[in-house]
Design goal:
It is a single chain. By secondary structure, the chain is mainly alpha-helical. It has one domain. It is about 65% helix and about 5% strand. A three-stranded antiparallel β-sheet has the order 2-3-5.
Length: about 475
């Protein structure tokens, strides 16, 4: 009898992808665009100047191995943020606050799981679409996992709520400052233009995500054997229980501290340019506040913090190794070649197919350029002039970029936030892929339909660029 195939550990999958990227640096021609330095200090390459490199760089096996610790260092901001959140949540859990919150939410939503799922997906999508939040949701993962377990759901449902929320927020955002606004600036169309269509499709797309998560959750609730994570241990010691502590004044003060922490972080991101380092500092402060209000001894709080960090060691490694895939591509200097090679065929397609082709190209490239703004700087200066030539106006090119970046963020393993969320919930990547891939197919079909209709009805035709296609530079983020 043939032994059943076993899916490798997520770390093996990521290392295999790094190896494929390494081999690609030997097979894909290396080339470059001419570069200039912009006023903001970024390196820019000029569209139409691509040429093969005379001196080919060959990465050695040692370069491949060294890329692993380098990738861990490159992803340190996300890694340490996850460590801090895990440690601080362990402190909060030891005070009984997490369990008391779960019990309180269970009383309110225990018999209405569909309402909970919709509220979480919609709220996270609204926040991500408005201010570009994503990593800020990591602290909510443990709470939602515990709540879902208590409602006879599972960790996959909790992850589905969080990830689809921020993925849809980015994918159909009306005015995200980190994606839509950047792409419109690079494509040289007025900021906030075309907002009517993006607002119109927001709720329908969110409903697609809600239906996907709720359909799965309903099956699990009817029969726990349908859970993809049925045989996996609960993350961070979360367990099903019917005895939840009462949400007392002390717990409410600690939760108020969490709300204040999140609110301050959101203010800092939008007004002061904060991100993960500052967010980590705010959560450290909340951890101290929690230990004091919860009347924990200093040694007890320290031990709980370390325990929380230890539980996320595997997650940290996966986040770092995932960064190594893009790092190898950068070292091998084949990113320009891939962008050039994928964009060239678009000029031979009709406008409708070219718009869908732009979307597919952006989806694939997001695997190598997981930064939303970074992808806009790399791809939009090529997509804009190509679109001018084939009848896809720049507003549609921006929409294709937005769909490709936002939706694929929910499934690509190079997305550090995604790896942090599934790691916090204890969900292996291959199981998440199995859950998410059908949703991605639905979204690609829906997004393709929107793009084709946008071309047919000439969406954004009234918006004219100021800079001509010949003059438009292709900017490249160097970080």
């Amino acid at each position: 009898m043939t032994e059943k195939f076993k899916v490798p550990h997520t770390l093996i999958l990521l290392l295999s992808m790094m190896l494929v990227a390494y081999l690609a640096t030997w097979l894909v021609p290396q080339g470059f665009f001419e570069t200039v330095t912009l006023e903001n200090g970024r390196q820019a390459v000029v569209a139409g100047t691509y040429a093969l490199s005379d001196d080919q760089i060959r990465l050695s096996p040692m370069d491949f191995l060294v890329a692993i610790p380098r990738a861990l260092a490159a992803a340190q901001d996300v890694i340490f943020f996850v460590f801090i959140v895990g440690g601080v949540l362990a402190i909060a859990r030891s005070t009984g606050t997490i369990d008391a919150l779960i019990g309180s939410l269970l009383e309110r939503f225990g018999h209405k799981p569909q309402l909970l799922i919709f509220m979480v997906v919609f709220t996270f999508a609204m926040a991500s679409g408005a201010i570009g939040t994503a990593g800020e949701y990591i602290p909510f993962v443990l709470i939602l996992v515990g709540l879902c377990k208590a409602m006879r759901l599972d960790a996959m449902t909790a992850v589905g709520m969080v990830v689809t929320g921020y993925g849809f927020g980015y994918g159909v955002s009306a005015f995200s400052p980190f994606t839509v606004m950047v792409a419109q600036q690079v494509a040289d169309v007025p900021l906030y233009s075309g907002i009517e269509l993006r607002l119109a499709i927001f709720v329908p797309f969110v409903l697609i995500g809600f239906h996907h998560v709720w359909r799965y959750a309903k099956k699990v609730q009817q029969d726990p054997a349908n859970s993809m994570t049925a045989n996996l241990p609960c993350p961070l010691g979360t367990a099903e229980t019917e005895d939840y502590p009462v949400l007392n004044t002390r717990h409410k003060l600690i939760l108020f501290g969490l709300v204040a922490t999140i609110a301050t972080a959101v203010w800092g991101i939008s007004q002061k340019g904060w991100y993960l380092y500052e967010l980590g500092a705010m959560f450290i402060l909340w951890g101290m506040f929690t230990a004091i209000v919860g009347q924990l001894a200093a040694d007890t709080a320290a031990n709980k913090f370390i325990e929380g960090v230890q539980d996320l060691a595997t997650t940290a490694i996966l986040i770092g190794v995932a960064r190594g895939i893009a790092l190898i591509m950068e070292d091998g200097q084949i990113l320009h070649t891939l962008v050039y090679g994928m964009s060239a065929p678009l000029s031979h397609l009709g406008a409708e197919l070219a718009a869908v082709g732009m979307f597919i190209m952006q989806t694939i490239l997001n695997l190598f350029i997981p930064s939303g703004s970074g992808q806009a700087y790399v791809t939009m200066p090529l997509m804009a002039p190509v679109g001018d030539l084939i009848g896809v106006n720049r507003q549609i090119a921006v929409l294709a970029y937005q769909f490709g970046d936002g939706f694929s963020n929910m499934i690509i393993p190079t997305n550090a936030v995604l790896m942090g969320i599934i790691g916090m919930a204890g969900v292996p990547y291959h199981l998440w892929f199995k859950f998410c891939f059908p949703l991605i197919i639905k979204l690609m079909l829906a997004a393709s339909l929107v793009l084709v209709l946008a071309v047919v009805f000439d969406y954004g035709a009234d918006v004219q660029p100021v800079i001509t296609a010949v003059d438009l530079p292709m900017q490249l983020i160097t970080s």
